[in-house]
Structure prediction request, 111 residues.
Amino acid sequence: MSRHGWTLKNKNVTQPTRKILQHVCWWVNHAWHYPRAASIPLRTFQWDTEIRRVVFEESKLVEGKKRPWQTNDITDEKLLEHSRTLIKEVIESVTTVGYWTSSDPHHKTLV
Prediction:
């Protein structure tokens, strides 16, 4: 991929995707925050692991409710794959739906 192509992908896909995932994590846990720039946590940060932990493992449920995946056959790897699927779906949406790109006039109100 050319430098120009990488720059466009970063601007039009990566940045909006990161903002969406940040919002999802914050929505689930208002104390959550993305690691600061140049911090040690940022060096090892992985979205799939973070989504699994914050959204699928630690989020609070309505009293008496159970998570659909709380069965004996669920593994950390299956939850991690579920997290990756969610991330892929966000990336696909950002890539294919025009209003996520900064060239769309609604961009600033959405991200």
The longest helix spans residues 3-28. DSSP finds five helices and no strands in the chain. The helical segments are 3-28, 40-43, 47-57, 76-96, 107-110. Residues 10 and 16 are 9 Å apart (CA to CA).
